[in-house]
Structure formats: C-alpha cells, structure tokens
Amino acid sequence: MSATSARPSHAAQPSGGAFILKKALISALVALVLFSLMIGVRTEAGPQGGLIYWTRFGDLAAMVATVFGGSIVVELLRQWWGPVDKDSIVPKPVQSAISFAGRWLAPALLVFTFLVPVIFYDQRYILDLSILVLTYVMLGWGLNVVVGLAGLLDLGYVAFYAVGAYSYALLATNFGLSFWVCLPLAGILAAFWGVLLGFPVLRLRGDYLAIVTLAFGEIIRLVIINWQSLTGGPNGVSGIPRPTMFGIPLTPGDDGLAAKLGIEFSPTHRLVFLFYLILAMALLTNWVTIRLRRLPIGRAWEALREDEVACRALGINTTTTKLTAFATGAMFGGLAGAFFATRQGFISPESFTFQESALVLAIVVLGGMGSQLGVALAALAMIGGFELFRGLDQYRMLVFGIAMVLLMIWRPRGLIGHRAPTVFLERNQAISSDLVKEGHG
Amino acid sequence: MDYFAQQLINGLVLGSIYGLIAIGYTMVYGIVGMINFAHGDIFMIGGFIALISFLVLVSLGLTAIPLILLIVLLVSMAITALYGWTIERIAYRPLRHSFRLAPMLSAIGMSFVLTNFSQVSQGARVKPVPPIITGGYTLHEGAQGFAVQLSNVQIMVVLATIVVLALFTWLVSRTRLGRDMRACEQDQTMAALLGVDVDRTISMTFVIGAALAAVAGMMYLLYYGLVDFFMGFVAGIKAFTAAVLGGIGSLPGAMLGGLAIGLIETFWSAYFSVEYKDVAAFSILIVVLIFMPTGLLGRPEVEKV
C-alpha cells in the first residue's frame, strides 16, 4: 500500500513494510511483558494447601506470536481500508437506502418472527433461543425508554427485572395467584420501585446518576440474597407455576389444552405459547413506546435528553418527566421479569447480576439509542452471537468482552445510527444519531 | 471502647486500600471524563501479578523478605501499569471523541475481558498465600481478655498508602507531567494549543492509575492472604463508590471517600450484620448524594445555557 491511496486528511500517517513490522514488533513486546506472568506461569493450590506453580512458556510463545501476526494483519487491513469514515452527516444515497431498508426490514423481520414457530417447530433449541432473544428485545426496548429517550443513564436496570421476577414467583408460590393476575401486579410493583429509585436521583446528573442506579441494582440483589426467609436467598425460588392459556393449563392432563382441543399433547405447545406470549409483550412495549413518543410526555423525555436547562425554561416539569421515564422503563422490565420467572420455573439471584444490566445497556447503545429496530437487531446479534460460543464454555465471556470492545470501536453510535423523527416539518428526513445527545439527564 | 478502637484500625486499613483504587477512578474521570469500569479488574491483575512474582521469587531461592517485597512491588507496578497503558490504547483512545456512552461500554467490555482472562489463565479457584508478614503489637490489654491489636501488615498497608500518596501528590503538584495533567483536566483543546501532548498525558494518567491499583492489589494480597479472579468487581464498585462519595474528580475526595467506605463497612459489620455491609455502604452513598449531589468534596457543576 502506498501513501498516496490514503485520504488527504490522514496522509501524514506513515505506511510501508518497515512501519508495519516495527509496530508489530512493539505489540509483540508489549504482549510478552503483559502475558509473561499471567500466561507464562500457572498457579494452583497444591495438595498441602500451599500454592504450587508450573510454567507454560509454549502457550506464552503462541500468544506472543498470535499478537505479532494479528498486529500485521490488522495494520494491513487498516491501510487497505483507509481511515474509518468519520463523516457525521449521512450522504443522500445512504440516507435513502436506510429509509428504504427501515421501511421494509422491520415488517419483514416481524413477519419472519411470527413464522418462527411454524418454520422451526421441531427444533426445540431454536425456539428456546428465539424466546431468549425476544426477552432481551423486550428488555432493550424497556431500557430504551430510560436511556434512549429520556437520556437517563441507568446501570441497574436488571433490578426491575428482578423485582418483576420475584414478584411473580413469590405471589404465585405463596398465594397461588395465576400468571395473568400476577403479570400486571409485577409491572406495577416494578414501576413503583422505579419511582422509588427516581426520587433520590432527581437532582443527580450523568455519572452520579449512573453510580446510584448501579448501587440500587446491587442493593436489590444483595437484599434478595440475604433475605432468606422471604426469597430463599442464594437457593432461589423454585416450583414457579407455568403460565396457563387464560386458565387452561398446557399440561398432558385431562383438563389440559391438548385434551380439550382433542389433539395429541406435545411439550412444544408450551414453547410455542411462550414464544407468542413474549412476542406479544415485546410488541406491546414497542407500541406503547412509539405511542408515548408522540404524546407530550414522550416529547418531554426527548427534550430532557437534549437539554435539561432549556427544558425547564420551557416550563416542562422535569420531576414528573424523569419519574415517568423511570416508571415506564421499570414497568416493562418488571413484565419481562415475570415472563422470565414463568419460563424458567426457577429463579435465583444469579440471574440478576450487573453483567445482565451491562448486556441490556450494550443492546440499547449498540442498537443506536432510540432506534426500535436497532435494539431488536442488536439483541439478535448479541444474544445470538453469544449462543454461537456456547461450545467454548469458559472462553465465552472473554470473547463476549472482546466483541463488546470491538463493536463499540467499530460502531460507537450503534448499528442503526439513524431514526425517523417523531414530528417533522413538510418532509420526513432520517436523523443521524450523531445529532442526538445522551445521558446528561 | 477497645472493640471500637480495633474496628477503627481495621476500617482505616480497609479504607486505605479502597482509597488507593479510588484515586485511579478519580484521575481518569478528572482528565478524560469517563468512568474506567476496568479499573477494578486492573487492581485484580495487580494482585495476581504480585502473587505470581512472589511465588517465582521464593522458588528462585530468595529469602530476604523485604527485598522480595520490594521486587514484587516494582514488578507488579510495572506490569500492571503496562496493562493500563495497553487498555487505554486499545479500548479507549479510539473512542476519545466519541459520544459518552461508547467508551463506557467498551470499558465494561474490557472489564469482562480482564476478569475472564485471569479466570482462563489462572483458574477460577481462590489462591491463598500463607501470611508473609507476621507479628504485631498489642496496643491495649483490655478487660475480658480482649486486646487491641495492630499487626505489622496493617502498619505496612497504611505506611505504603501514605508513602504512595505523598509521592503521587508530589507528582501531580510539582512535576511537568502533573502540570500537564492538571492542564488537560481544565481544557484539553487549550492545553494542546499550549504545547501539551494530550495523548501522552492521558496515557500516563492510565499508567499511574494502574500502578496505584497494583499497589492496592499487593496490599490486598498481603492483608487478606488471597486473590481470586472476581475480586476486582466487588473492590472496584466499592472504590468507585468511594470516588463518587468523595466527589469524582477530586483527589483528596477519593482518599476521604475510600476511608469513609472502609469505616462504614467495618463498623456496620462489627455492630450490625455482616451480610448487609455492602447494602449499608451503597445506601449511605445514595443518602449522601441526595443532600450533596456532587459528593463530599466535589465542585458544584456549572449549568451552561
């Protein structure tokens, strides 16, 4: 690659074989020091309790060689591709292509989703996976209300998921209430907790808000772990009843749905039912969000995200605006939690760690802050991609972390960095998300 | 009273460790304006490198404990500092001018990478070490056989914290690098115009923060006698809480917040319940922030219109 092919603004960047080699050598040297002790030496508690260690210089050499080779490949790719395009204003053809794709991709995806149980009826694994993906789509859309629309950075979203799950689990196991009674209750309880969290953070901004929500999430998890008499502590709650189809259980018994319809019982029926249930709940979340965005409250959220001071100057009540955003987002989290509890039949605090919050936040940001389609695609990419590495077992989270870093570097503005405006003058134009502020609330 | 004094000592020692980690958060926040979520894991890596280098040195036949500890300290500071540098180069520098949530998420991703890297490379089990520094003093022989103890490890942790803090304060207030760091904190563009190498200064901030975390990691290893791959998350959140409690961006605030969190945790465990010590620490954080929205020593935010 010659320097002439580089763009003018980056023409100063050196290139050529010697440069690449030098860079790769430095990377390899850094890798050698970094990994020298962590990979080169393996420690383990010995039989007498003391620590023993053995060396793994072969692995170390392999890692350093990988870094050396990888560095050359990355550098070559970078020079071949040229610098990453930083243009913030979207060019016209791209804009129209995106709006075209946006118009057709979403309905096509929706139709396909509706048909998933038909196409993959026999593949239990795919049904399970799509239920999981849809759960995260719903969580992403719920958090999108708080982060994407209102610009309030919430690092403890999983707390509401936990509240919903435990509400349903405890109400159902202790009082024998049915899923359909508990579902709204779980949503209301989670919304209540959202308001409760909202009050102390009303005066906080940016990162102070982030740490308080994070702390709140941890508090809920720690209370669940330690309040053994109510929640069962680390053992969790088991024996959570399965959902019924409006009172008709999906069991092989005489009063089950299969017997009533006169067809042969199959456990897949329940999966298909769960699939359509979560699909309906996710679509409800989406529909409510889209409707709310057109209402004064939704516009107040977006105004709050852009500029809180201007918002107050315009006479928008920031207190109610923030509280409704937290409550709405939390409610959807709670509903998703109730679904999670009924799907699993067993919940424990392990399902509600910070890692989950980070995953949902990653889905929202990767989806492109406020883009509903983007969030759905990001959930598919993240959860589906995560599943691809199931065989790798202990390397899975490592790969996931690397993927998260790379995705952020590759698309800091998310997969779909454009969205349709809620209101527009004369002509509907895609808004680049570069123009959208975030998380200053 | 004796019991109280003992808890005070324990709390101050724990608080020093938190304070050392919290300074790393606060420094990075002050200059780059981002929460370095991977910082807790850098602390964990520091602990691991201290452990491994200690094992290797002992098996090489070194017997002088002070010499070993000095070498371990230098090695773990150097290697961990390189971790800080590399992480900044790979995950944060490309996102320097990006919107605010992107570097935060890449930091969270980096934290997952470090946690799982050490799990994969060193195993998931807790690594215990026998006490390296033993002995101590009995400060006060109380009634019912309860004595206020001050162990040598505790003295060492506090002394190391004081020395490191003194060095660090000197670095920030008296050296060229410290001046550059303060300039970048005020205004990066202006600093760059006046000839400050902003990239280098930010790299050095990460390097110094990581080195401080390595000191904390080593102190943790000496004090508790164990490391494991997950300790970075818990300690990181506590130290981050400490930094925010003290007012993120303020260096004395970080130390003050660290001591406060250490004391709250220790006293809560001693007088109430151990299980809810973290809940207590987080609840007090929330309460403090309600009344002082920018922390104890934080500067009030100016609203630009």
Structural features:
heterodimer; A: 441 residues; mainly alpha; two-stranded antiparallel ribbon; 6 strands; 4% strand; disordered N terminus; B: 305 residues; two-stranded antiparallel sheet; 4 strands; 72% helix; globular
Explain what this protein looks like in three dimensions:
The complex is a heterodimer of chains A (441) and B (305). With 441 residues, chain A is mostly helical. Helix content of chain A is 66%, strand content 4%. Chain A contains 16 helices and six strands. In chain A, the strands form three sheets. In chain A, strands 1-2 form a two-stranded antiparallel sheet. Chain A has a two-stranded antiparallel ribbon with strand order 3-4. Chain A has a two-stranded antiparallel sheet with strand order 5-6. In chain A, helix 5 (158-175) runs antiparallel to helix 6 (179-201), helix 5 packs across helix 13 (318-344) and helix 10 runs antiparallel to helix 13. Chain A is globular, with a radius of gyration of 25 Å. Chain A starts with 16 loop residues before the first helix and ends in a 9-residue tail after the last strand. Chain B is mainly alpha-helical. Chain B is built from eleven helices and four strands, in the order H-H-H-H-E-E-E-H-H-H-H-E-H-H-H. In chain B, strands 1-4 form a two-stranded antiparallel ribbon. The longest helix of chain B is centred in the first third of the chain and has 31 residues, at 2-32. Chain B starts with a helix and ends in a 14-residue tail after the last helix. Chains A and B meet through helix 1, strand 1, helix 7, helix 12 and helix 14 of A and helix 2, helix 3, helix 4, strand 1 and helix 9 of B. Chain B: This is Branched-chain amino acid ABC transporter permease LivH.
